[in-house]
Amino acid sequence: MEKQQEALVGPIPDKQDLDLETGSTDINSQAPQSTDPNVVDWDGPDDPENPMNWPPRKKNTIVALISMITFITPLASSVFAPAINQVMTEFKSTDEQLASFIVSVYLLGFCFGPLVLAPLSEMYGRLWIYHICNVLFIIFNVACALAPNLAGLIIFRFLAGIFGCCPLTLGAGSIADIIPQEKRGTAMAFWAMGPIIGPIVGPIAGGYLTQAKDWRWTFWVVAMLSGVITLIGIAFMRETYAYTILEKKTKKLRQETGNEKLRSAADTGVTAQELFKTSIIRPTKMLLFSPIILLLSLYMAIIYGYLYLLFTALPTLYAKQYGFSTGSIGLTYIGSGVGSILGLALSGGLSDRLMRRLTARNGGEPKPEYRLPTMIIASFFVPLGLFVYGWTAEKNLHWILPIVGMGFLGFGMMCAFMGISVYIVDAYTRYAASAMSATTVLRSLVGALLPLVGGRMYNSLGYGWGTSLLAFIAVAMIPVPVIFLMYGEKIRQKTFFNVQIY
């Protein structure tokens, strides 16, 4: 046992080393071994318990399961959208703003959930947070299906959103736990399908489901799909957070050796209460004081808000102007779906290839900024898609043309989401969950609130100038990825912008 204990010794990260902007201490990396026999670390560089050393099949299974969960919960945000007219008729309401709010209140849950789930995952690990949130997500979707009135539907849908945000908040961090930086782009591409493709597939399925059954079945189907994935996840998902794994190893060694002085290499000496307080503040602190997190979150929030605004506008446009049925309206979302898939195909593989090529040019030293070129591509397609959508709808041209505009928007949004997500994960590896929760909060807030003003905007400005206003804002954001590509590293190294963990 003494030899085993000596093989597990390693360094304790110092508080000063845990800096978000200049680089985080990664417990997966192999630092020089400490001479302190009471410090429990990995059992050498090839320790099979280290998530980075897991076999490819195990890693791929976990990435696939996380991606499946991340597909279902965003799908639930929009699958209900085509059914809203039926809901309002059943409950005898004609309030258009209330109708939009019932759809978007789910995203308000996405705003609050990450602020608690991200720090909890960094304290207690990812696995049980996934399982608990998945079960509660199912329960509140069943409650939505049984809702007796609009008030109950709004409350249950909000609670479903709080727990449904879990895979969006933790997914990127889980991938960073097990996939090395140079291969992370492809894995992130599969995970990124959920937040983009899910909201697009949702209305297509929801439209025909509502037409064939009724609006309550949109929630029943979501609950059933989630139940199947949750059972598979309980069987095959494993804890990926290295700090939690080392803490469990330390606890086991204490029991086996009776040595209460043993401590994990991840132990910084901070109490659980202090750590939770710090962790729950961290996402807000990162959002407010890190220019990188703030501007990239704002960029993503704007595009995400545009997508949901157009999602709520499409049923009115195609029902009144083009005479589509409820089921056919769902098919109009295919344009953004095709664009998103093309964006995924381009950005996923291109991100890793660019990372390898630019790293080789830089003497083998990778930089997070090498992930940003895909975002630069996106910055031009987003306003292009908005202009095409707005003016073809304004001039009442062929019904396919606004869908083509949505395709350009979907392509740009996927490239942007991929570039931002992988960049943030690479730059904030240990605290990826907190960093992504900061972006999720702002993105979801804008996605929830912007559709509420969409109807008034189009009534005042029309589809042409109303959508052009959105496009002009997108044009103004084009320099953001270019600036961070050129100066991101210098910004991260400036003391003024360093966001200290403690």
From TrEMBL:
This is Major facilitator superfamily (MFS) profile domain-containing protein. The keyword Nuclease does not apply. GO terms for cellular component: membrane. It is a multi-pass membrane protein. It comes from the Eukaryota. The chain crosses the membrane at residues 62-81, 101-120, 127-148, 154-176, 188-211, 217-237, 287-311, 331-351, 372-393, 399-424, 431-453, 465-487. Its main location: membrane. Residues 62-491 form the Major facilitator superfamily (MFS) profile domain. Keywords: Glycoprotein, Membrane, Transmembrane, Transmembrane helix. SUPFAM superfamilies: MFS general substrate transporter (SSF103473). The keyword Lyase does not apply. Belongs to the major facilitator superfamily. Residues 22-37 have a biased composition (Polar residues). It is found in: Membrane. InterPro entries: MFS, MFS_dom, MFS_trans_sf. GO terms for molecular function: transmembrane transporter activity. It comes from Clonostachys solani. Residues 1-54 are annotated as: Disordered.
